[in-house]
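---------- Forwarded message ----------

FYI, see the Protein MNN4 record below. Original note from H. follows.
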Amino acid sequence: MRLSWLLSLPAVLTVASAIAIEKRDADFLSVRTKMHKDMSGRGGDPKDKYFRKSLSLSQGAGIYESVFHPHYDGRFADHQLGYRERKQALSNLIQTYLATMADIGVETWLMHGTLLGWWWNRKILPWDSDSDVQVSESSMHYLASYYNMTVFHYKTPRIPEGRDYMMEINPHYTNREQSDKMNVIDARWVDTTSGLFIDITTARYNFTHPSGEGMLSCKDGHEYRDTYIYPLRETFFEGTPAKIPFAYKEVLEAEYKQKALTQTSFEGHHFDEDKLEWIPVNKKGIVEAKKKADESRKQEEQKQKEKLSQDKKVEEQKNQEQQALGKPETKAPVAQQPNAHQADSSKPDGPQVAKQPTKSDQQPPSAQHDADAQKVKEEEMRIANLKANEEERKVKESAAREEEKRKEEGKTNGSKR
């Protein structure tokens, strides 16, 4: 009996493996924890759609992921979390995901709004209600083959009561074409307590792309040259080791424009550069801050106009004085003093006659010259301020990189001990 069982074991394992990679639609009854009503609204979705997302009806989206918010899984949640509770839940969500992927050997990296949050302070943007990551095509096949519908239980100091997280693979992940608009999300990492989730998309090599070899495409429409993604950079996010694209700045600017990397007021928050935190502010404060910034900008523009007008008048007055004295028109007072080359010149006219100073040349500088000197000084100060601002920006970026490096070295030293 035992021998026959051992001989039949390979066949049993083969069948089990085949079942593991079949489509496994996680219906409400099979995954529910404590709810008695399915809030996903799945009945209104098109037949071939697996994950729901907030798209227009013309794109065949059906309805929202949940009936109350597009970034909650309606099988596990029936309400939205508060501001602080959501921030904490999203932090736990990305930490458990990154730790799990590292543990099972899946290479993944931050993208989209999550990567933008990393750019600012290595944290999730406080107004976000989900996270976005990417994996390679081979990694997606691996997850689908061995971890689809797997539940991971975490109990940590930050989650003392314990919490379950589920890896769910979209059975349409095998369709590589961007024409599959109803299934642009290939997988999700779902918090079965709060209903929040991480969208996981696959970066696939597009062998027929018009731009030639080395192009990566995602089903959600994003495309990248592979040298912008690989080799991945190691970093930290929400206090957990993470990876980001090699050319992260260029990737962010292409998706969100350069302003998103410098704008310090957005979505009811202001970025405190001393605390490196996005601080929520009320709408009145936002309006006042914007009004003050607009007024400051207008004043600066007016000053520049007045300065240009004054410079023009000074130049015209200077030219008139030089013409009255019979001197050629010059751009700056230093041009009136001959240099060594001019003194040796064979030309008898022009500035060379100044070799023999007249009585007027020996007198103190005129008020006009003082005005010219002041103008040059102001221009030098303006240029110095611009350089100082640029240096300050570089110092901040350098400090952020050094801080990241120190954290990584500290972790390495700790592991050596």
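H. also flagged this: The CA atoms of residues 114 and 146 lie 26 Å apart.
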